[in-house]
């Protein structure tokens, strides 16, 4: 093992406050998706469309927009 790999400090990507705010925003999107299902009927299918969009955003935003897409070459 190289000396750099064992003695390198752990780097934070963002602060705790930023992580908490992002978590709350994504949880609101997720819970909004679940809440939209309360309005779902056979006559009105728009709540399901809203649910799918909010659910997809709640998972897509953290994984792609907020994720580290440039870390593929790191080991």
Describe, in plain words, how this protein is organized in 3D:
This protein is mostly helical and about 80 residues long. The model has no long low-confidence stretch (mean pLDDT about 80). It starts with a helix and ends in a 10-residue tail after the last helix. The longest helix has 21 residues, at about 15-35. It has three helices and no strands. It has a domain at about 20-60. Helix 2 (about 15-35) packs antiparallel against helix 3.
Helix content: 55-70%
Order of helices and strands: HHH
**Number of helical regions:** 3
Head-to-tail CA distance between termini:
13 Å
Basic shape: elongated
Uncertain stretches of 5 or more adjacent residues: none
Counting helices, strands and paired strands, the structural category is mainly alpha
> What is Rg?
19 Å
What is the averaged pLDDT score?
81
Quick one: biggest sheet? Answer: none
Extended strand count: 0
Query: Beta-sheet strand percentage?
Result: under 5%
């Amino acid at each position: 093992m190289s000396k750099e790999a064992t003695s390198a400090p752990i780097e934070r990507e963002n602060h705790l406050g930023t992580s908490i705010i992002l978590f709350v925003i994504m949880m609101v999107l997720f819970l909004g998706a679940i809440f939209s299902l309360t309005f779902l009927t056979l006559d009105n299918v728009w709540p399901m469309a809203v649910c799918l969009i909010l659910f997809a955003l709640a998972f897509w935003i953290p994984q792609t927009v907020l994720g580290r897409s440039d870390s593929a070459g790191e080991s």
